[in-house]
């Protein structure tokens, strides 16, 4: 357990059942009794019962109360203990945030973010924050003089809580939430449950880097507890991942929402016109030095503005227990490997370029995308028919993809892959011909051209000039790219 700071903890009987309720942090004002689920508020040395907290749904997270770890903050190695858990429901599903008690007596938050985790601490924004409704998706704002892009703006509500907590929002009552991201990977969350709004800032973290102790022990019993019957056809469905928000039935391919947890109310949606993945679900392979397993698959269609011709591509959701999630994308552009970004690239006012972590990427495609078929498990609430506006960028160093929905912008970044790399990674030599694509070439032109090439180009130019000079002069011309996607993902969202 993390070392406690030198301060007095407070313990008093629960006003509801008399069981002991303990406050370790002076910043904690609320607690949920572990015995009767009473929500109590502390005022000095007096505890007052506010009501009963709703039951937690089991999200099968490896984290639990009193798990401890260490994190580098401001150049120091700081220990912390998880003392509270909050479950929220928003526009794109349900997510969990953990109250972390630092050894300096302050509180921080370890929250879900794009299938991974982000560690944030309260900050003074240095100015009065505007109303949540004034934040427009994609616009830029400043916090303490630093520019941030508005990545999410919507409504959320507290649905359950556990343990020792800071001031709680009213249970089940919607409040505004805004998420800002910077081009160097920072996340700022602004919560409007109380006034003035609560502001926290932080960065993405890997659980393996937090040196966590006291995590839940995985067992066969726990795994069996994640089975349920499909609400559409009744066939058994097995949930493999702790972070799964949606899953498809292996028998009828219905999409099943797990936003109330396994054992809660299950909602399903039928699918027809099945699309079979070329890489089977469950396949394991190694890409960029990391072992991945294919846990989800979605097929998507796109169309460029002003065009009526659609193009399609497939995305394989990959999972690693310590690294989180990534996407292997199969499109007309070939194969690519991308991961959601924590920060938000800074897009030029013209929309023709974007800068991220010091690299500038040029716009290549703009198109509307729609999810048409899904299989497997997903860390966000995937739905057939989900639509986003997409932009794909590239540079000599890699790829960027932006997806925008009504209230959220998400980014992913990565690299192109050769077909042989995909074949070798997943041991699919028998499917080599099927998986073959136009492999990526260099992003920049080579330094020199041969004489034969120069002569050929000159001849082509002369022929084109002769043809154009004989034309009557059509007033317009048309151009359409081959389309495709460098690899985005449908509303995986921040803190969701």
What's the arrangement of secondary structure elements?
Layout: E1 10-13, E2 20-23, E3 30-32, E4 38-43, E5 46-52, E6 68-73, E7 76-90, E8 93-102, E9 107-113, E10 116-122, E11 140-143, E12 146-165, E13 175-181, E14 187-191, E15 198-205, H1 220-224, E16 227-229, E17 236-238, E18 246-248, E19 255-257, E20 267-269, E21 284-287, E22 290-303, E23 310-320, E24 324-331, E25 334-340, E26 346-347, E27 353-356, E28 359-378, E29 387-395, E30 398-404, E31 409-417, H2 419-426, H3 432-435, H4 451-469
Antiparallel strand pairs: 1-2, 3-4, 3-12, 4-5, 6-7, 7-8, 7-12, 8-9, 9-10, 10-15, 11-12, 12-13, 13-14, 14-15, 16-17, 18-19, 18-28, 19-20, 21-22, 22-23, 22-28, 23-24, 24-25, 25-31, 26-27, 27-28, 28-29, 29-30, 30-31
Keywords: Membrane, Transmembrane, Transmembrane helix
Transmembrane segments: 447-468
Domain DUF4178: 78-205, 281-417
């Amino acid at each position: 357990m993390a070392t406690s700071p030198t301060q007095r903890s407070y313990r008093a009987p629960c006003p509801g059942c008399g069981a002991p309720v303990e406050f370790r942090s002076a910043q904690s004002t609320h607690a949920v009794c572990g015995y009767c689920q009473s929500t109590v508020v502390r005022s000095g040395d007096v505890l007052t019962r506010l009501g009963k907290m709703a039951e937690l749904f089991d999200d099968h997270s490896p984290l639990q109360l009193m798990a401890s770890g260490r994190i580098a903050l401001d150049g120091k190695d700081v220990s912390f203990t998880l003392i509270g858990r909050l479950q929220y429901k928003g526009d794109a599903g349900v997510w969990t945030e953990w109250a972390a008690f630092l050894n300096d007596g302050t509180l921080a938050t370890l929250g879900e973010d794009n299938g991974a985790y982000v560690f944030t601490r309260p900050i003074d924004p240095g100015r009065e924050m505007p109303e949540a409704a004034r934040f427009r998706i994609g616009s830029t704002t400043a916090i303490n003089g630093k520019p941030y892009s508005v990545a999410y703006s919507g409504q959320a509500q507290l649905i359950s809580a556990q343990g020792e907590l800071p001031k709680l929002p009213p249970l089940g009552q919607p409040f505004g939430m805004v998420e800002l991201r910077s081009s160097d990977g920072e996340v700022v969350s602004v919560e409007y449950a109380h006034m003035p709004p609560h502001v926290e800032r932080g960065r993405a973290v890997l659980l393996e880097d937090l040196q966590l102790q006291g995590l839940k022990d995985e067992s066969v019993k726990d795994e069996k507890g994640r089975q349920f019957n499909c609400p559409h056809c009744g066939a058994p469905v097995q949930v493999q991942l702790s972070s799964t928000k949606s899953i498809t039935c292996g028998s009828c391919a219905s999409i099943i929402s797990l936003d109330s947890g396994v054992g809660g109310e299950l909602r399903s949606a039928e699918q027809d016109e099945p699309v079979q993945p070329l890489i089977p679900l469950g396949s394991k392979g190694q890409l960029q030095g990391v072992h991945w397993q294919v846990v989800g698959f979605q097929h998507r269609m796109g169309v460029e503005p002003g065009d009526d011709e659609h193009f399609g591509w497939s995305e394989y959701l990959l999972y690693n227990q310590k690294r989180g999630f990534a996407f292997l994308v199969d499109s007309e552009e070939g194969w690519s490997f991308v991961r959601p970004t924590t920060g938000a690239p800074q897009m030029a006012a013209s929309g023709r370029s974007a800068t991220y972590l010091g690299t500038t990427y040029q716009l290549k495609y703009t198109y509307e995308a729609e999810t048409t078929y899904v299989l497997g498990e997903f860390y966000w609430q995937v739905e057939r028919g989900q639509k986003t506006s997409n932009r794909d960028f590239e540079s000599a160093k890699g790829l960027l993809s932006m997806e925008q929905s009504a209230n959220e912008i998400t980014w992913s970044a990565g690299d192109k892959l050769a077909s042989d790399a995909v074949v070798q990674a997943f041991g699919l030599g028998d499917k080599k011909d099927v998986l073959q694509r136009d492999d990526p070439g260099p992003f920049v032109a080579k330094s020199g051209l041969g004489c034969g090439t120069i002569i050929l180009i000159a001849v082509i130019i002369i022929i084109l000039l002769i043809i154009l000079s004989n034309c009557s002069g059509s007033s317009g011309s048309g151009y359409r790219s081959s389309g495709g996607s460098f690899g985005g993902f449908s509303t995986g969202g921040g803190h969701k």
